[in-house]
Amino acid sequence: MVDAVIAIDIGFGFTKATDGKDFLVFKSVYGEAVDLQFRESLLDTSSHDEHIQIEIDETAYFVGELAERQSSSRSFTLDQNQFISSSSKILALATLSKLVHQPKQSIKLVVGLPIGHYRQYKDELAKMLKTTHEFTAIGAQGERIEHAITVTDVRVLPQPIGTVMDRLLSITGIAKSQRFANDKIGIIDVGFRTTDYTISDKGRYSERGSLTTKNGISKAFAKIGTKLKEASNIDVEIYRLFEAVDSGSIKIRGKSYDLNPITEKAFKQLATAIATDANTVWADDWDIDAIMITGGGGAVLAPYIEKQLEGVVIPVKQDLDYRLHNVRGYFKFGLYTWRKQETKKTTEATA
Fold it and tell me: Tell me, what's the pLDDT at 1?
């Protein structure tokens, strides 16, 4: 049986993944699993996809929304070293528990890292993932499924390259866009903790035009949280602000707080910093043909950033959640890479 390809974008804010058919998105939060005395939903408004529970080496974890809702002690970090050493494996196996449907299966993985951490952590991440993972997935009704998933190969990419691959390749991993193969494209990938800047020059990664900063959307969220604490005297965890910022308000102890004014100010300040960094790092790359803005943070900041960039901005296709363009590109890159390898092996065998 041919190994399945799974792409995972393990972000500080959200973990995103696809098997080419379905997408999975959940908050990059996990906590200790408690014994749920009552497992039925009070109202038919929740999905079983919200229940992500795994057990690794006899330690059980709730992951994503379930951890936020049920775990007393939750883990959520913005520290890259801790994220790789402690969080990545748990979040990756949580993903596989949902996307790999055979308890014993061999797969190939494509994952991404911020440009600034790519060289330091890519080998460690690949080594951690490329093995046989034995763990238990626990369903919403307590049913247990024992997994032994063998990861036979891992490709680690600089994160923004995923968006380029998404535009360059078809869903079957075949080159389709001459523009992205021939032009020089700058990519601004606004994530939760970091913003990555990179250049795809005729489909090749440019080290000189690449940079990672800590100007992720969490910086704006931190300012919003500070203002909210001044008004309410409650310290709201950053990961609990996603829905509040999106809706424009939050209720604390029954009182509603309007977040729109402080959100607008925080987003404008962050967008200015991001655009300034882009104009600076690409000052010598005056021959860039166009710029793309991607990432979950890019979805909300793009209108503010575009006005301040020195260059032509390509709108990201609206066929998909902004957060998913990188991971879909990872998947396409995996198909492209491993298809080439299989074709080469076949050719050599028949020569």
Answer: 45
pTM over 0.70: yes
pLDDT given at position 46? 47
> Under a CB-based contact definition with an 8 Å cutoff, are residues 173 and 332 in contact?
yes
* DSSP alpha helix (H) spans, 130-285: 161-168, 178-182, 217-232, 242-247, 260-281
Residues contacting 277, CB < 8 A, separation 6+ = 195, 197, 211, 213, 215
Query: What confidence tens digit (pLDDT) does each residue in 261-303 have?
Result: 999 999 999 999 999 999 999 999 999 999 999 988 988 899 9
259-280 as b/e: b if 16+ CB within 10 A:
beebbeebbeebbebbbebbee
The verdict on residue 345 lying in a domain is no
Q: What percent of the chain has pLDDT over 70?
A: 91
The two three-digit tokens of residue 147, written as one number? 């997994």
Best CA proximity match to 287, nearest among 173, 172, 206: 206
Give the number of C-alpha atoms closer than 13 A to the C-alpha of residue 165, restricted to the C-beta side.
Answer: 27
Where in the sequence is the domain holding 179, given as residue range(s)?
172-327
- Is 14 inside any structural domain? yes
Quote the CA–CA distance of 251 and 253 in Å, as a whole number. 6
Q: Indicate whether 152 and 11 sit together in one domain.
A: yes
The Cα angle at residue 124 between residues 123 and 126, in degrees rounded to 5: 65
